[in-house]
TrEMBL record:
Keywords, sorted A to Z: Hydrolase, Signal
One matching Pfam family: Abhydrolase_1
Residues spanning the signal sequence: 1-20
Domain of life: Eukaryota
Organism: Hypocrea jecorina (strain QM6a)
Coiled coil: none
Signal keyword on record: yes
Xref: SUPFAM superfamilies: alpha/beta-Hydrolases
InterPro entries assigned: AB_hydrolase_1 (IPR000073), AB_hydrolase_fold (IPR029058), Serine_prot/Carboxylest_S33 (IPR051601)
Family as reported in the entry's similarity comment: Belongs to the peptidase S33 family.
The protein's name: Predicted protein
Domain AB hydrolase-1: 84-278
An example molecular function term from Gene Ontology annotations: hydrolase activity
């Protein structure tokens, strides 16, 4: 599922290794690599190898043509020709696995061990992989105008805001449909079932390269957030091709394909509640918003929220001759939702901002909500193509019910979550996809899940308090895959963003 650009779903950001430009045999961009139906690895990015694997646009009709998928490999120091590759599937949709692995080379080796090769990739439609789609065809002015019309702030701040978000959402789909028609005829061929088939193509090509039978190839995958949808889809389609699979921070795949995101708000307020207890326990020297009791911290935070809801704060910047700004309730809510992704890193920052707000200084929140505007279309395009034929969020009645539900379940995040995820954008998409690319009840008797075990049990992991990919989703997904193992850690945060560390408990379900 989507996250703000400042969030990495798996690793703490270590920064990219500096590129050395002296080795002329080294490649530093995927455009310089010729796509091939065979898995051909080229030295790249100082210490990695890269490949652009040519795959069919439509596996059920190969006459449609091909596209290429960008793969990046970090060879294990102790890996052999028989060593499997662990594929790290990024979050999103729209997350770049290439960027993720490039930024976290040292941590990746530490996490998985030197006896394995570590591979990541850009799924279809993302960054270095095709097919690409720019819904606004490079027209930055049109994109800005749409964001101004549509992203009016917290969804239920007023009936006008709610209705503006609903009715303006159709504009986005119309622009995307038109861009496909005129410029990118296969721009919607980026669905998750197609990505699952791309992964099968990859492991079979890798097996053939190693002199092994492609039909025996097995997938070793570590999927994070949206990557768990890819993993669950692959396991449903190819249950006998599972080598090892870890799904961490579970997105309920059935709800994802229905474009129904209400389950995600289940633990948001529980996670926000830990802010007050952690702040109090840390003490005034480590938490600037400290209070004598957790209840005191909550009460003061609620007062700050109410104050900003009723009285936006103007920032003139007159003395500096900078741009004027207006800090709103929506900016504060954007702070809350982004902070919940990585509480360990974000809660201290949130405490500082709340401390400043309590003293009348709102400058740290300038542009916080606008900073969530999407500048790339890949995430929405994948999300909307995936919900083709199953979208349960199309009418204003359904949108209202969804918004009311999220508010009822989360006092702190519920009112901003609908525009944060922005799943209402899908209502005007018209992908016209072949059956092979979509998950639907008519196509598969049970879209996600099995009535028998996979070739190797899937390990499903979750924090006990996960504000974005809640524990219930992990339990539900585990129930759909017989023999799977559910591993819990008593911690707060998304995926591997662990705040507390205690002995985890393994539960067979």
């Amino acid at each position: 599922m989507k996250a703000p650009l400042s969030v990495l779903f798996l690793f703490t950001s270590l920064g990219c290794k500096a590129h050395g430009w002296n080795d002329r045999s080294m490649v530093y961009k995927f455009d310089d690599i010729k796509p091939s139906a065979n898995l051909t690895w080229t030295p790249c990015f100082d210490g990695f190898t890269c490949s652009r694997l040519e795959v069919p646009l439509d596996y059920s009709n190969k006459s449609v043509g091909t596209t290429s998928i960008a793969f990046l490999k970090l060879a294990g120091k102790n890996a052999t020709a028989e060593s499997p590759s662990i594929i790290v599937n990024p979050g999103g949709p729209g997350g770049s696995g290439i960027d993720l692995l490039l930024s976290n080379q040292a941590l990746a080796s530490l996490a998985f061990g030197e006896q394995y090769n570590i591979v990541s990739y850009d799924p279809r439609g993302v960054n270095n992989s095709g097919p690409s789609l720019d819904c606004f065809s490079g027209n930055a002015e049109a994109r800005t105008a749409f964001n101004r019309l549509h992203r009016t702030g917290v969804t239920n701040i007023s009936s006008a805001s709610f209705e503006e978000q609903y009715y303006s959402s159709s504009i986005y789909g119309e622009w995307c449909n038109d861009a496909v028609k005129k410029e990118s005829p296969h721009g919607f061929y980026v669905t998750t079932p197609a990505v699952a088939r791309d992964l099968l193509t990859f492991i079979e090509a890798e097996a053939e390269l190693a002199g092994q039978a492609p039909s025996d190839a097995k997938l070793w995958l570590y999927g994070i957030s949206y990557g768990t949808v890819v993993g669950a889809t692959f396991a449903s389609m190819f249950p006998d091709r599972i080598g090892r699979m870890i799904l961490d921070g579970i997105v309920d795949a059935e709800q994802y394909y229905d474009n129904a995101w209400s389950v995600n708000v289940a633990q948001m307020d529980e996670a926000m509640g830990t802010f007050s207890s952690f702040c109090h326990a840390a003490g005034p020297e480590k938490c600037s918003f400290w209070g004598p009791t957790p209840a005191n911290i909550i009460a003061r935070m609620d007062k700050v929220i109410l104050q900003l809801q009723n009285h936006p704060v103007p920032i003139s910047n007159a003395q500096s001759r900078g741009l004027p700004a207006l800090v709103t309730y929506s900016d504060l809510k954007a702070l809350f939702v982004t902070s919940l992704y990585v509480p360990a890193a974000s809660f201290p920052v949130m405490a500082d901002i709340l401390h400043q707000l309590e003293r009348g200084n709102a400058s740290a929140l300038v542009g916080m909500f606008d900073g969530q505007d999407a500048t790339f279309d890949s995430g929405h395009v994948i999300q909307c193509a995936d919900s083709y034929r199953r979208n349960k969020l199309t009418s204003i009645k359904e949108f209202k019910s969804y918004a009311e539900y999220t508010v009822s379940k989360s006092k702190y995040i519920g009112d901003v979550y609908p525009i944060f995820v922005d799943s209402i954008l899908c209502r005007s998409f018209r992908p016209q996809l072949p059956d092979s690319m979509v998950v639907q009840g008519e196509h598969l008797s049970r879209p996600i899940g099995l009535d028998r075990p996979t070739s190797f049990p899937i390990l499903i992991t979750s924090n006990t308090i996960d504000p974005i990919t809640p524990l219930n989703s992990a339990r539900t997904t585990s129930s759909r895959f017989p023999g799977s193992i559910l591993l819990l850690q008593e911690a707060v945060g998304v995926s591997c963003s662990r705040i507390s560390s205690s002995k985890p408990s393994a539960i067979r379900v």
